[in-house]
Amino acid sequence: MRDLLEQLVAEGKVRCYGWSTDDPERARLFAQGEHCAAVQHNFNVIDDAPAVLAVCDEYDQASIARGPLARGFLSGKYTIENLDTALAKHDFRATHRDRILNFIQKSGALREALTSGGRTLVQGALAWIWARSPRTIPIPGFRTMAQVEENISAMEFGPLTQGQLGQIDGLLGRAPH
Question: Is there a smaller number of Cβ atoms within 10 Å at the N or the C end of the chain?
Answer without folding.
Answer: N
